[in-house]
Design a protein that fits this description.
By secondary structure, the chain is mostly beta strands. It is built from 3 helices and 13 strands.
Length: about 290
């Protein structure tokens, strides 16, 4: 998915399979909340006012009503995969809400992680012109993360933040965030100096995977001058999850011991070849 003329987000996907047990439907008709369970094979005959909702469900806005407005509809993931495949073509403009899906694996004896995106909501949007001066890119994230560590690299103008994400079921996985200290020096200093292991910070930021313009490295000055548009800026490849703002901070929310039982349970229940989901390679897009 291309979000600007230089930024491309890969690994957006959705996986679904036919449920082997009853599925839940929800209703809030007339302000009365109801919940029922049905067999998946009965999904085409929803009772009036009920819809699938929550885990294992994707919301699509790929159809329009009689007035030409996008109509949102919830589908079980298995159905949503086919709907997306049949509705979207290369070159279409869409908006997507997604969650991080961190896949951890062993490569050459080292534990590595690849950050994917699980589609949760998707719909068509109006075409955008990336070349227009008033174009505003949307490639953002917003998460509550548990701080594991911070590391300042002055040469790269980066503060690296080890963050732990904990899902609804208590499962956790780790990934690396960055702060561009050349743009957000105060933010980097505050994260580095005011957070410790186990703190929760609410962060907002940008998913960056593309080329950025940086100043060309300095070389011997032979005199003369470069013509306009030549030699002053060069492209540099960047693949990062850049924190641009902290909106909340809860100190000492977790201790190291809080994760020991989770790790032990994971080791007990997982097969021998399962990787542990709490280390990551340097680049989140490896």
């Amino acid at each position: 998915m291309k979000t600007s003329k230089t930024n491309v987000i890969y690994n957006l996907d959705l996986f679904g399979q036919i449920p082997d047990k009853k599925v839940r439907l929800h209703s809030n008709k007339d302000g009365v909340k109801q919940k029922i369970e049905i067999d998946y094979t009965e999904r085409e005959n929803f009772p009036e006012g009920f819809t699938c909702f929550g885990f294992g469900v994707t919301s699509l806005a790929l159809e329009k009503d009689s007035e030409g407005k996008s109509r949102k509809h919830n589908y079980f993931d298995y159905e949503a995969v086919g709907k997306i495949r049949d509705s979207i073509n290369d070159g279409d403009y869409v908006w997507i809400d997604a969650t991080f899906n961190i896949n951890t694996y062993i490569s050459n004896g080292e534990t590595r992680s690849k950050v994917k995106y699980k589609i949760e909501n998707i719909g068509f949007k109006s075409p955008a012109d990336f070349e227009q001066d008033n174009f505003k890119e949307v490639s953002s994230f917003e998460y509550d993360i548990v701080v594991l560590n911070t590391n300042l690299n002055k040469e790269k103008n980066r503060l690296y933040v080890g963050g732990r994400l904990i899902d609804y079921f208590g499962n956790f996985s780790d990934m690396t965030f960055t702060v561009d200290t050349s743009k957000h020096e105060a933010l980097a200093e505050n994260i580095k100096n005011k957070t410790r292991f186990g703190d929760i910070i609410s962060v907002q930021g940008r998913c960056v995977n593309g080329a950025v313009l940086v100043e060309a490295p300095k070389v011997l000055d032979w005199g003369g001058e470069s013509p306009e548009g030549v030699g002053k800026l060069v492209e540099d490849k960047v693949s990062e999850f850049q924190i641009t703002k902290v909106t909340g901070h809860k100190a000492k929310a977790y201790k190291q011991d809080d994760f020991i039982q989770t790790i032990q349970t994971y080791e007990t229940n997982a097969p021998d070849d399962s990787p542990f989901p709490w280390e990551q390679s340097e680049s989140p897009f490896n």
